[in-house]
Design a protein that fits this description.
With about 525 residues, the protein is an alpha/beta fold. It has helices at about 60, 125-130, 170-180, 255-270, 300-315, 330-350, 365-370, 390-400, 405-415, 420-425, 465-470, 475-500, and strands at about 5-15, 45-50, 65, 85-90, 95-100, 105-110, 115-120, 150-155, 160-165, 195-205, 205-210, 240-245, 290-295, 320, 375-380, 380-390, 435, 440-445. Strand 12, helix 4 (about 255-270) and strand 13 (about 290-295) form a beta-alpha-beta unit. The longest helix has 27 residues, at about 475-500. The protein starts with 6 loop residues before the first strand and ends in a 22-residue tail after the last helix. Keywords: Cytoplasm, GTP-binding, Hydrolase, Magnesium, Metal-binding, Nucleotide-binding. Belongs to the TRAFAC class OBG-HflX-like GTPase superfamily. OBG GTPase family. Monomer.
């Protein structure tokens, strides 16, 4: 069973807001004491928080669906529903949050760093909060809004200053065990290290972290071996240390060949924007400071091989150290060289001027001014107008469509926002389909603003709207049938009158105005 997971797909959803309450205060001798319905509580958020005690994403691998608590419904006597509890998900230091398209949403570094992965939904208002001079006792309340629901990708990138890279069984785990208090698994077979190991090294007055990354092999960039899957753990490192095996048992391997292969694999690896310097630029792995540690010089053949390849490595510009994890030979000099690089890297970060983000000038549009936009589409050869915007979509989610007064309140809100004016400008005609929101959304057969406003509600029982009752909005098909029925009725009436005229009851045709009689001829 896996004990270390550094990449998971997490399905998170915020809590749904509680519904508002419809209630009227009733006391002795005060049968109508006014509305007293409380508001619904907001849904809980899902928050990712860096926790030092967390070292893996294994829990989210087994339980990838996480949902925050819903808000409570409002109650009478002005009692509000309880707020949903926030769901805190602990993640290791260095966790990067991405969406399904690979876009970086957050880089969580440092104890306590947080990111709201899914916000909770807003609770609905009770009728006491909706009362006004025109709506003294509303017979409706607003519904709670569902919380955000999304899929995110969590990737763990270890926080280390120096990374040890090299072929399997090159001695990386032995080195980190000899230089720090870390105790990784060590054995004499390839791919012993299956997870990245971290060790803290003290060299003089510099204290830094070294990461032991699972071994790389040729073709790792194409998915071979394990190393390429864990290279994300070295993206934050200031420098790399090539650990070369000078006592390899394979006859087709040598330190120079191993170095060339590893360098090619590092060159193929693309570092994403989750690691960036003070200037916001990303330095490729193969362009960062690198040291070479010729390991296993305690073996006679290993020392001979180290002396043979050292001149060539120094000719290429590398700082070379002959070390032995077994006898600790050369480890002190290697540690001080690492500390020097770490000190310079930290100094450059501290001395770099803060990066000033260039302000983005946003073009004014309808959405920024009025909170919505209207897009004209076509469905089944009929015009369709789609209303998009946070406010209209949220208002529709809050509306109880089984309550006429709530529907009338929604119509008043949309009219006040300016939706109907823009529909007129967009060319909408009475009876055209209007959709609020993406996808199927909520479809209306649009009719211009209802006569009057909320001042007419005084004559309506609670929970009803006299405007909707008296001025119901027929569908397009009903309008077509009514129009055809009127035309047929007029044609039948004309035919009846014409028949009466021909029978001598009338002296002129019903079509007299359209077909006047001819002028009499001379002698007639």
């Amino acid at each position: 069973m896996a004990s270390f997971v550094d990449r998971v797909v997490l399905h998170v959803s915020g809590g749904t807001g509680g519904h508002g309450c419809v209630s009227v205060k009733r006391e002795k001798f005060k049968p109508l004491g006014g509305p007293d319905g409380g508001n619904g509580g907001d849904g809980g958020d899902v928050i990712l928080r860096v926790d030092s005690s967390s070292t893996t994403l294994l829990d989210y691998h087994h339980l990838p669906h996480r949902h925050a608590t819903n808000g409570g419904n409002g109650m009478g006597d002005w009692r509000n529903g309880k707020t949903g509890e926030t769901l805190i998900l602990p993640v290791p230091d260095g966790t990067v949050v991405k969406n399904k398209d690979g876009e970086v949403l957050a880089d969580l570094v440092g104890e306590g760093a947080e990111y709201i992965a899914a916000a909770g939904g807003q609770g609905g208002l009770g009728n006491s909060s909706l009362s006004s001079q025109k709506r003294k006792a509303p017979g409706f309340a607003l519904l709670g809004v569902p919380g955000d629901e999304r899929d995110i990708v969590l990737e763990l990138k270890s926080i280390a200053d120096i990374a040890l890279v090299g072929f399997p069984s090159a001695g990386k785990s032995s080195l980190i065990a000899a230089m720090s208090a870390a105790r990784p698994k060590i054995a004499d077979y390839p791919f012993t290290t299956l997870v990245p190991n971290l060790g803290v090294v003290q060299a003089g007055d510099v204290r830094f972290t070294v990461a032991d990354v699972p071994g790389l092999i040729e073709g790792a960039s194409e998915g071979k071996g394990l190393g390429h899957n864990f290279l994300r753990h070295v993206e934050r490192c200031a420098a790399l240390v090539h650990v070369l095996d000078c006592a390899a048992l394979e006859t087709d391997r040598d330190p120079l060949g191993d170095l060339d292969i590893i360098e090619k694999e590092l060159e193929k690896y693309a570092v994403d924007m989750s690691f960036a310097g003070a200037d916001g630029d990303v330095v490729p792995l193969n362009q960062r400071p690198r040291l070479v540690a010729l390991n296993k010089v305690d073996v006679p053949d290993g020392r001979d091989m180290a002396e043979f390849v050292r001149p060539e490595l120094e000719k290429r510009g590398y700082r070379v150290f002959e070390v032995s994890a077994s006898s600790h030979e050369g480890l002190k000099a290697l540690g001080y060289a690492m500390a020097e690089i770490v000190r310079d890297a930290r100094a450059s970060v501290e001395s770099a001027p803060p990066r000033v983000k260039t302000p983005t000038l946003r073009v004014r549009n309808a959405d920024a001014k009025g909170g919505f936009t209207i897009r004209k589409e076509e469905r089944n050869l009929q015009p369709l107008f789609r209303v998009l915007g946070d406010k209209p979509v949220r208002w529709v989610q809050q509306t109880d469509f089984t309550n006429d007064e709530a529907v009338g309140y929604l119509a008043d809100r949309l009219a006040k926002l300016g939706v109907e004016d823009k529909l007129f400008k967009a060319g909408a005609k009475p009876g055209d389909a209007v959709v609020i929101g993406e996808g199927d959304g909520v479809v209306f057969d649009w009719e211009p603003t209802m006569i009057g406003g909320a001042e007419l509600l005084a004559a309506s029982p609670r929970g009803s709207d006299i405007r909707i009752e008296e001025f119901s909005r027929p569908t397009r098909e009903e309008k077509k049938e009514d129009h055809q029925a009127r035309r047929d009725a007029r044609a039948a009436a004309r035919a009846e009158l014409e028949a009466e005229r021909k029978a001598g009851i009338w002296t002129e045709s019903v079509n007299y105005k359209h077909n006047p009689p001819a002028a009499p001829k001379d002698g007639e």
